[in-house]
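Following up on my earlier thread - several people asked me to post the actual chain instead of describing it. Fair enough. Here it is, all 609 residues.
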Amino acid sequence: MEDILTGDAQLDQAVRQWLQYDQNEKTKSLVQDLLKDGSLEVLKKKFSHRMEFGTAGLRAAMGPGVSCMNDLTIIQTTQGFCCYLEEIFGNLKERGVVIGYDARAHPTSGGSSKRFASLAAAVFISRGVPVYLFSDITPTPFVPFAVSHLGLCAGIMVTASHNPKQDNGYKVYWENGAQIISPHDKRIAKAIEANLVPWPESWQTEEALKSSLLKDPYQDVHAEYFKAIQKHCHFRDINKKSDVKIVHTSVHGVGHSFVQAAFKAFDLNPPYAVEEQKDPDPEFPTVKYPNPEEGEGVLTLSFSLAELEGATVVLANDPDADRLAIAEKQANGKWQVFTGNELGALMGWWMFHCWKSQNTDPNAVKNLYLLSSTVSSKILRAIAVKEGCHFEETLTGFKWMGNRARDLLDQGKSVLFAFEEAIGYMCCPAVLDKDGVSAAAIAGEMVSYLATKGKTLSEQLTSIFNEYGYHISKNSYFICHDQNVIRSLFDRLRTHDGTRGSYPTTCGRFTISAVRDLTTGYDSNQPDNKAVLPTSSSSQMITFSFANGGVATMRTSGTEPKIKYYTELCAAPGDSDVAQLRKELDDLVNAIVENFFEPEKNKLQPKPE
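Reply from S.P.:
Thanks for posting it. Predicted structure:
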């Protein structure tokens, strides 16, 4: 070791400490092989920077080292989290925590979601904390549901959602049933740093799994969850008689049996399952990326099955079943994959339509709230304005919408629906996070109802836009691994005329009417130029509003090497020249790419086709 690590005392110490602490023979021998082979650069990558614990918890590749997900980093993270919870909750040992996991596995390093969940359970049990550990894989929404249903202090879900197969993650929920927000993340990160030495009992999963403190919430949560979502089943008779054919894929994730159960709970005919993708498989063998957001590539097998069975609608969950994609066969025989914003419009309209049919009190609408993230379509705002309910916008991510929904519910308000453009929908306040299982059943009912009116989803979307105004969006991203390039790209937008805090007033032929920068806290729309939404200097996010009704947000991703952009053109009701609106938006996007991103100069890779 001395030879290869000479001259890098910090790396030397990190590797020595690792080999001293790690008890997983596979990860230990992988590190020893790297030392033997003299793989200095790989060692630096794995040991120079510890994974950062943020509001999304952890997400990284599985493998050895402090920058990866493995037995030791899971133990260290859970020890820190446990100590923080002990500090906050005097009744932690009475209430306990819940832990769920998906089907991810990495045989090379011996890591898997189930293994990580067992280690996390062992840490809590070693401190006398009751642990509700699911005995089998579950969708992510089951964890926040269990936190609320069982009145627990916190929840952990071991999943990397739709990330590539080598990744895993550690997602944390607070006692209110929503994901953690600041300052919890910073304080947990500090507690992790203070508890890096593994407690001897933390490794003892076999003993922990026999402990009287360990409980299995699977049956109870399964029964109660499907009972809770039935409150959103409004047309059971239509469902029972419906002959609409729907295909469902769980993309090698956990969703299959749960979506089947959700359809059953709604008295819908079971969807046809894509055989090659219905069972959990950590290799995700039939797709390049296990992300239904990527569209047609992930849905090829679904379309083939739909053609075979004569189905007109495809539903797709991501691997941890918290997101939902929908596609529909059009009259010309082609498939339309709806964007997250279009589905937000459809689901938002449907939730309000159902609510209205159940509520005759004209004043009840004043207590009703619709939520979406700031980079999502403003269609819910248009619905709220016309119908007289409330609309609120939050920062990007369901952690913000979940926490805001909890605040509103605690004030006696009614939160009907929340969504984000990344195909995430919260249709049931029993889960304060995105939930692709309940959304699948609710979408199934919507499709069945529309069929009785002789309408397709596409036709209903057009009706929504005719009634509330067209909202046309175009979202994409560039890949960039160089943080300096990202920083200079955004800094250039903040120093437009050479002085800090001066922003562009035009973009190509388009006039900019307002700027909001949630990295610095500037908002030209506010009287004091201070943004109302929370700001974060650690991530980049600027929104430009244009004189033509366009809105564009540029932001960095918290979990991937991407600079994302979200654009939308909001037209007034009655302005229905869709071709002209689309051309105007295309021109705006081209101007933003050319003038603000400068992909050639910055060597940015476009989104793969």
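The mean pLDDT is 95. That should answer part of your original question.
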